[in-house]
Specification:
The complex is a heterodimer of chains A (131) and B (210). Chain A has 131 residues and is an all-alpha fold. Chain A has 4 helices and no strands. The longest helix of chain B has 34 residues.
């Protein structure tokens, strides 16, 4: 009972005693997660291969589906919740996501900018010829 | 005196204050610590993803993703890993209710699905290398093999860990320490599936777009 005092760890067994919870609730959560993940995966593969969607919009659609599926995995498989006893886990996750975002967006922006400002090869050749 | 007795009764009835309760149980600390490790692992993967995204078009005149990636193979890999994540969840449920047979069954199925995933991935790598698409051929292929290979390496470590845990479970039973380690394993396995979602989206699906 005193364990209610502390936050839960990700995916930890529920604080409710086994006798009080429904026998199949954990099974239902995993199965629901599997179903959602399968639907999102199949949609991803369909979006990548169909011609029904405007081509420049496909990468954005794939990104949205991937993020949604990661959310499904976090909630249904890792049991990350928004409950008050899960604050530590969510805060750590938020910090991780921030670093991931900085690394990804930073690298991509810097490299795209470098590419754009890189002197084209032909110009380089011309400069050398002007000498 | 009467008042003192009443206060005692109240103190025992309610939970201890957070400052008096001491540290959380080891089960919770271990799970949270492992969660922090997993996040750092994901940060490492984000660096690999960033390098892949930057180098994805730098194929140096060699084979590109469109020619190399087989979507049917990727779909099978995805299905295998997703199912193994699910059976790993079933194993966690069996552990929570301390059922030996169900735990072993879940572990065996999880192991077989993970091993099948790994076999498919190695076969894919072999096929690519046979076509001359080796890691040293171009920046794109270096980044590809580093990213997907790191994930494969994680899966390999996970499989070895699972075997080790089954040995420990059969020798020591559901001791607290064994249950903690099994719990950390299931977190690890689910996190690998999350990384695979990003890999199949960014590498295999976006990589073959025209």
């Amino acid at each position: 009972m005193t364990e209610m005092r502390w936050d839960v760890a990700p995916g930890d067994r529920p604080t409710i005693p086994v006798s009080e919870q429904k026998a199949s609730s954990g099974f239902l959560v995993y199965t629901l997660g599997l179903l959602l993940a399968v639907i999102l995966t199949v949609t991803s593969f369909w979006v990548a291969n169909t011609t029904a969607i405007w081509a420049p919009g496909v990468p954005a659609g794939l990104a949205v589906l991937a993020i949604a599926q990661m959310g499904v995995h976090l909630v249904f498989f890792l049991h990350i919740t928004t409950g008050p006893d899960s604050t530590n886990n969510v805060l750590a996750l938020a910090f991780g996501v921030l670093i991931v975002f900085l690394v990804l967006a930073g690298s991509l922006v810097i490299m795209a900018n470098l590419n754009e400002n890189m002197m084209p090869h032909t110009e380089l050749m011309n400069l050398q010829m002007q000498r | 005196m009467n008042v003192a007795v009443e206060m005692d009764a109240v103190r025992q009835g309610e939970l201890l204050d957070i400052s008096e309760a001491g540290p959380a149980p080891k089960r919770i600390i271990a799970g949270f610590g492992f969660w922090i490790f997993l996040l750092s692992d994901i940060v490492m993967f984000s660096a690999l993803f960033a390098s892949y995204a930057v180098l994805a078009k730098a194929s140096a005149g060699g084979l590109t993703g469109v020619q190399l990636f087989d979507q049917r193979n990727v779909a099978m890999e995805t299905a295998l890993l997703l199912l193994s994540s699910y059976t790993c969840g079933m194993m966690s449920l069996a552990i929570n209710s301390r059922r030996y047979l169900a735990t072993f069954l879940g572990a065996v199925v999880t192991f077989l699905l993970g091993a099948a995933f790994l076999a498919l991935e190695l076969r894919e790598f072999q096929g690519m290398i046979a076509l001359g698409a080796t890691p040293e051929r171009s920046a794109f292929l270096s980044a590809f093999f580093t990213l997907v290979g790191s994930h494969g390496l994680h899966v390999t470590v996970g499989l070895a860990w699972l075997v080790l845990m089954m040995v420990q479970l059969s020798l020591r039973g559901f001791q607290d320490v064994v249950v903690r380690r099994l719990h950390c394993f299931s977190l690890f396995w689910h996190a690998l599936d999350i990384i695979w979602v990003l890999i199949f989206t960014v590498v295999y699906l976006m990589g073959v777009l025209p």
